[in-house]
């Protein structure tokens, strides 16, 4: 895991919503677990999780939106551009108090009749 990246620091309920959404799917949890062991080339990652690259990119997009993973390009020795993903450093402490705080941030739509 690359600790040189900015760590996850959600500050709004929208940030937490993206985080919870990103971690709500078993495949994305699997991807996070794999990337926690080290960065991976996108084709290698797709092979490990047994899915097409387009489907993998859909899952990765959710993880990127939640600031959990970051991608970077590298040029191989053969001159091929390769995309790697790695997990960003993060720690989230979920407590009832945090959920109360977040609930107060969420606007409730009202209907005037």
Could you name the key traits of this structure?
5 helices, 3 strands, alpha+beta, Arc Repressor Mutant, subunit A, elongated, 113 residues
Helix content: 40-55%
Give the number of DSSP strands.
3
Strand order of the largest sheet: 1-3-2
Query: Strand share of the residues?
Result: 5-15%
- Reading off the top of the CATH hierarchy, the class is best stated as Mainly Alpha
Profile the largest sheet.
3 strands, antiparallel
Folded structure, characterized:
By secondary structure, the chain is of the alpha+beta class. The protein has a single domain, classed as Winged helix-like DNA-binding domain superfamily/Winged helix DNA-binding domain (Arc Repressor Mutant, subunit A), CATH 1.10.10. It is 45% helix and 14% strand. The chain has a 3-stranded antiparallel β-sheet with strand order 1-3-2. The longest helix is centred in the middle third of the chain and has 13 residues, at 53-65. The N and C termini lie far apart (53 Å). Mean pLDDT is 89; it is low at 1-6.
SSE arrangement:
Elements: H1 13-22, H2 26-36, E1 40-41, H3 42-48, H4 53-65, E2 69-75, E3 81-87, H5 96-105
Antiparallel strand pairs: 1-3, 2-3
Helix pairs in contact: 1-4, 2-4
Question: Briefly, what is this?
Answer:
This protein is α+β, with helices and mostly antiparallel strands and 113 residues long. It has helices at residues 13-22, 26-36, 42-48, 53-65, 96-105; strands at residues 40-41, 69-75, 81-87.
């Amino acid at each position: 895991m690359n600790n040189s990246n900015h760590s996850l620091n959600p500050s709004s309920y929208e940030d937490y919503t993206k985080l919870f959404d990103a971690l709500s799917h078993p495949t994305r949890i699997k991807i996070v677990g794999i990337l926690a062991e080290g960065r991976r080339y996108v084709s290698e990652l797709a092979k490990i999780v047994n899915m097409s690259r387009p489907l993998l990119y859909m899952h990765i997009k959710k993880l990127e939106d939640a600031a959990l993973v970051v991608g970077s390009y590298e040029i191989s020795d053969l001159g091929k551009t390769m995309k790697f993903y790695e997990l960003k450093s993060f720690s989230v402490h979920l407590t009832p108090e945090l959920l109360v705080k977040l609930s107060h941030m969420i606007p409730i739509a009202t209907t005037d009749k």
